[in-house]
């Protein structure tokens, strides 16, 4: 693994050209780096701010090798990177994050194993490959439970709640399509939180404020930071992050979603990259999740994180864009981030806005009153 410092003038390759790559690139350009992005969509959001785009599929190994030749270091903005491509880059010693984080987070079975190996609490679950195993798992775990594909799926896709025996057929159909499912106990919880952190190639780690997440239709709607939880919960979140990071060998910015019930947490999902729930860090902290990520993969020291009070981040889906901008004069303090996506779709993340203040609860209540946040 390369541990030399890559300074300004070096070239960063990014696999994936969406909004996370765009925000990585914006920071990298400020720091003096050149950026090459690999993405199949011409003029993708990242390409609009990068120096160069390689237009090719993510699993096009010729294109991946071309990216490697042009780059001093390579990173990615999403976890479904082709593993063969990641291994080629790792063998070339230009992928500090390595392939293991991708391998683990691409597969919910491996992800659960990593959580357990890290001695972190998880909901009861079973991996099933046959209808008989599915039936047995549901009988043991009970209703309600949730069926999830072990690979693929995001924003609620690839999963179904099983409330009674009548829902088993849905899970059977999912199993026929996916060959392997994870059946999890449905966990009643007080709230969902996430912790975004960054770890260097030498093991140094910094944590951003624990954030509280509000979902609508399985899509992140708003994030409140810091989360409305006790210091005991926040400390458990940081301890879990450290344990999992060391087990997997995390390098760069990483996110963990958790459920909170009373003073207990359950680990839910891992994301080996900057995360939607960490967007508030751009305005609310002295360093963003994206700058820390660039610093980590380039071998630079991390900045000690200081938070400037409270923040609320709200995602702008396609259906939200016109209503928000029609009342822009009523929200002069909104920090606006639009992603440059060519096509506006009702449930597509087109941008986000962040509001900063001393008290995140006051901000949140004001946004509910203005109907910017759905209560």
From TrEMBL:
<comment type="function">
    <text>Catalyzes the ATP-dependent conversion of 5-aminoimidazole ribonucleotide (AIR) and HCO(3)- to N5-carboxyaminoimidazole ribonucleotide (N5-CAIR).</text>
</comment>
<dbReference type="GO" id="GO:0046872">
    <property type="term" value="F:metal ion binding"/>
</dbReference>
<dbReference type="GO" id="GO:0006189">
    <property type="term" value="P:'de novo' IMP biosynthetic process"/>
</dbReference>
<comment type="subunit">
    <text>Homodimer.</text>
</comment>
<keyword id="KW-0547">Nucleotide-binding</keyword>
<feature type="binding site">
    <location>
        <position position="108"/>
    </location>
    <ligand>
        <name>ATP</name>
    </ligand>
</feature>
<dbReference type="GO" id="GO:0034028">
    <property type="term" value="F:5-(carboxyamino)imidazole ribonucleotide synthase activity"/>
</dbReference>
<dbReference type="InterPro" id="IPR005875">
    <property type="entry name" value="PurK"/>
</dbReference>
<feature type="binding site">
    <location>
        <position position="192"/>
    </location>
    <ligand>
        <name>ATP</name>
    </ligand>
</feature>
<feature type="binding site">
    <location>
        <begin position="268"/>
        <end position="269"/>
    </location>
    <ligand>
        <name>ATP</name>
    </ligand>
</feature>
<dbReference type="InterPro" id="IPR054350">
    <property type="entry name" value="PurT/PurK_preATP-grasp"/>
</dbReference>
<dbReference type="InterPro" id="IPR011761">
    <property type="entry name" value="ATP-grasp"/>
</dbReference>
<dbReference type="Pfam" id="PF22660">
    <property type="entry name" value="RS_preATP-grasp-like"/>
</dbReference>
<dbReference type="InterPro" id="IPR013815">
    <property type="entry name" value="ATP_grasp_subdomain_1"/>
</dbReference>
<dbReference type="GO" id="GO:0005829">
    <property type="term" value="C:cytosol"/>
</dbReference>
<dbReference type="InterPro" id="IPR040686">
    <property type="entry name" value="PurK_C"/>
</dbReference>
<dbReference type="InterPro" id="IPR003135">
    <property type="entry name" value="ATP-grasp_carboxylate-amine"/>
</dbReference>
<keyword id="KW-0658">Purine biosynthesis</keyword>
<feature type="binding site">
    <location>
        <begin position="153"/>
        <end position="159"/>
    </location>
    <ligand>
        <name>ATP</name>
    </ligand>
</feature>
<dbReference type="Pfam" id="PF02222">
    <property type="entry name" value="ATP-grasp"/>
</dbReference>
<feature type="binding site">
    <location>
        <position position="215"/>
    </location>
    <ligand>
        <name>ATP</name>
    </ligand>
</feature>
<keyword id="KW-0067">ATP-binding</keyword>
<comment type="pathway">
    <text>Purine metabolism; IMP biosynthesis via de novo pathway; 5-amino-1-(5-phospho-D-ribosyl)imidazole-4-carboxylate from 5-amino-1-(5-phospho-D-ribosyl)imidazole (N5-CAIR route): step 1/2.</text>
</comment>
<feature type="domain" description="ATP-grasp">
    <location>
        <begin position="112"/>
        <end position="298"/>
    </location>
</feature>
<dbReference type="InterPro" id="IPR016185">
    <property type="entry name" value="PreATP-grasp_dom_sf"/>
</dbReference>
<dbReference type="InterPro" id="IPR011054">
    <property type="entry name" value="Rudment_hybrid_motif"/>
</dbReference>
<protein>
    <recommendedName>
        <fullName>N5-carboxyaminoimidazole ribonucleotide synthase</fullName>
        <ecNumber>6.3.4.18</ecNumber>
    </recommendedName>
</protein>
<dbReference type="Pfam" id="PF17769">
    <property type="entry name" value="PurK_C"/>
</dbReference>
<keyword id="KW-0436">Ligase</keyword>
<comment type="similarity">
    <text>Belongs to the PurK/PurT family.</text>
</comment>
<dbReference type="GO" id="GO:0005524">
    <property type="term" value="F:ATP binding"/>
</dbReference>
<dbReference type="GO" id="GO:0004638">
    <property type="term" value="F:phosphoribosylaminoimidazole carboxylase activity"/>
</dbReference>
<feature type="binding site">
    <location>
        <position position="148"/>
    </location>
    <ligand>
        <name>ATP</name>
    </ligand>
</feature>
<comment type="function">
    <text>Catalyzes the ATP-dependent conversion of 5-aminoimidazole ribonucleotide (AIR) and HCO(3)(-) to N5-carboxyaminoimidazole ribonucleotide (N5-CAIR).</text>
</comment>
<feature type="binding site">
    <location>
        <begin position="184"/>
        <end position="187"/>
    </location>
    <ligand>
        <name>ATP</name>
    </ligand>
</feature>
């Amino acid at each position: 693994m390369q541990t030399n410092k890559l300074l300004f003038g070096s070239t960063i390759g990014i696999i994936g050209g969406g909004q996370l790559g765009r925000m990585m690139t914006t920071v990298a350009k400020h720091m003096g780096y050149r950026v090459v992005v690999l993405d199949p969509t011409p003029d993708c959001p990242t390409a609009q701010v990068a120096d160069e785009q390689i237009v090719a599929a993510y699993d096009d190994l010729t294109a991946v090798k071309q990216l490697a030749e042009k780059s001093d270091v390579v990173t990615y903005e999403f976890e479904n990177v082709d593993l063969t491509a990641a291994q080629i880059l790792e063998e070339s010693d230009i992928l500090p994050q390595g392939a293991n984080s991708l391998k683990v987070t691409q597969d919910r079975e491996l992800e659960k194993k990593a959580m357990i190996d890290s001695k972190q609490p998880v909901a009861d679950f079973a991996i099933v490959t046959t209808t008989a195993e599915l039936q047995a798992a549901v009988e043991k775990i009970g209703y309600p439970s949730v069926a999830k594909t072990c690979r693929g799926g995001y924003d609620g896709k690839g999963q179904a709640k099983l409330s009674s025996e009548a829902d088993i057929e849905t899970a059977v159909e999912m199993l026929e399509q996916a060959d392997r499912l994870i059946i999890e106990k449905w966990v009643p919880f007080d709230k969902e939180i996430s912790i975004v952190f960054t770890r260097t190639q030498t093991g140094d780690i910094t944590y951003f404020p624990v954030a509280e997440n509000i979902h609508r239709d399985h899509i992140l709607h708003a994030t409140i930071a810091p989360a409305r939880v006790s210091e005991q919960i926040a400390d458990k979140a940081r301890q879990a992050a450290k344990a999992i990071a060391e087990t997997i060998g995390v390098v760069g910015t990483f996110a963990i979603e958790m459920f909170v019930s009373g003073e207990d947490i359950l680990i839910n999902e891992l994301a080996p990259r900057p995360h939607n729930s960490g967007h508030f860090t751009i305005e609310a902290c002295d360093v963003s999740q994206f700058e820390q990520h660039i610093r980590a993969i380039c071998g630079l020291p991390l900045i000690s994180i200081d938070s400037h009070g409270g923040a609320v981040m709200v995602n702008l889906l396609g259906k939200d864009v016109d209503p928000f901008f029609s009342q822009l004069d009523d929200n002069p303090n909104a920090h606006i981030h639009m992603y440059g996506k060519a096509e506006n779709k009702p449930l597509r993340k087109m941008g986000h806005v962040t509001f900063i203040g001393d008290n995140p609860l006051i901000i949140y209540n004001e946004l509910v009153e203005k109907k910017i946040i759905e209560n």
